[in-house]
Amino acid sequence: MISAADTPYAQEELQEQYLAEVRPGNQDTALPIKVGIIVIDIDGIDGAQQSFVANFALIAEWKDPRLAADIDHIRIMKTEDIWTPYLQILNQQKLFETFPDQVQVLPDGTVSYVQRYWGTMSYPMNLEDFPTDKHFLQIKIVTVGKDAQHIKFSINEEKSGMSEVLTVTDWDITGWDTFTEPMIVGPKLPPLPGVVFQFEAERLVGFYFIKVLVPLIMIVFISLIVLFIDPSHIGPKFSIAITAILTLIAYRFLLGNLLPKISYLTHMDYFLFGSMFLVFAVLVETSIVARLVGRDKEKEAKTLDYWCRGAFIILFVIILVGSFIL
Question: What is the pTM of this model?
Fold first, then answer.
């Protein structure tokens, strides 16, 4: 009796299933896979969302002797028809694939898988130095599945790199590196083979200096004007001081949109809170001047204004240096 498995059609079907489910090489040793990552573009880095948008290509190459053939051309095969490693972008949020899900097979059985991705990836950032901060952002790739522990990654240096011209405008990419690293994807799970593409991003402070710091400093120095107004004009002194402190409070809410809800203070927070303290001190000083004027001590009120001018400038310099330099 001839079984169904003995028919030519069934044998071909079993062979395809074998190629798709059993990894090539010795099943007792790790299969070497060379991985290259080419970052084509970085579209943006969002500190508030702890994420970045990247456009990159992933190249994975391994050898499958079962696919060797006496031919002189490259074959295109579907990934579902042969064994392929189950590669995952570990820190992806939303990615789009732009290439067909297929591989190129050379005559000697070398398999080359190329896929291009575009989308958002998450990465935790320490923002204590904001807005003069720099970060090492990563694209993390792991292999999962039943063959994960029997795969050994290596870096394909010739097919790894980063474009010199990038779309991101408010960051400077100062360097990059690709390396292999075991990764933990869950509690009580063994580490999985992984590849990391890491690049260093340094925030450009020009935007924050022009759009945030300069107006903020101007608001702070508006309160300094209060100390130059004659004590007899107590109404305008109060109006300017109160307007300055309310404007700083509004700025605090504006800057809150640039950062996530973090439990620690950044350099910008220290400067903002120091500025608010300085403006509030001017408001308190104005109240004291008003009381002196009400007691016909205008000379003492002018003397207080005079000494507070110098103290204001000294304290402002201390706040500025302490917030961004120390």
Answer: 0.81
